[in-house]
Amino acid sequence: MIIRRTILKQDIVKKLYPNSISVRSAMQQLRCEIEICPPLKEQIANAGNTRCHYYNKQQLLLILEHFSISLEEFEQL
């Protein structure tokens, strides 16, 4: 399985929140989840720029670890 260097945030939230009404509300749910966990927020910030429309591979792995989802499970979503 090959993972790209960068993954669009919209693609991530579509898989993590499939029952969300829109991509915008799914993005808001992810932001809230990150905000309530300061260690996760700090780790993501230390892993790279957060002001872009994408997460890098390391940031994605941190988010998946927080949700207790393996990379294989994420690819199948």
List keywords for this structure.
2 strands; 77 residues; mainly alpha
Outline, from the CA principal axes? globular
Classification by helices and strands: mainly alpha
- How much strand content do the residues show? 5-15%
Distance between the termini: 14 Å
**Largest sheet entry:** 2 strands, antiparallel
Total of helices: 5
Q: Compute the CA-based radius of gyration.
A: 12 Å
Assembly state of the chains shown? single chain
* Low-pLDDT segments, ≥5 res: none
Helix content: 55-70%
Record the strand order, biggest sheet.
1-2
Write the element-wise H/E pattern from the N-terminal end onward. Answer: EHHHEHH
> How many strand elements?
2
Q: What value does the average pLDDT take?
A: 89
Organism: Plebeiibacterium marinum
Protein name: DUF4248 domain-containing protein
InterPro entries: DUF4248
Pfam families: DUF4248
Question: Can you describe what's shown?
Answer:
It comes from Plebeiibacterium marinum. InterPro entries: DUF4248. It holds the Pfam family DUF4248. It is built from five helices and two strands; from the N terminus they run E-H-H-H-E-H-H. It is mainly alpha-helical. The chain has a two-stranded antiparallel ribbon. Helix 1 packs across helix 2 and helix 3 (about 40-45) runs antiparallel to helix 4. The longest helix has 13 residues, at about 25-35. The model has no long low-confidence stretch (mean pLDDT about 90).
Task: Tell me briefly what this model is.
The protein is built from 5 helices and 2 strands, in the order E-H-H-H-E-H-H.
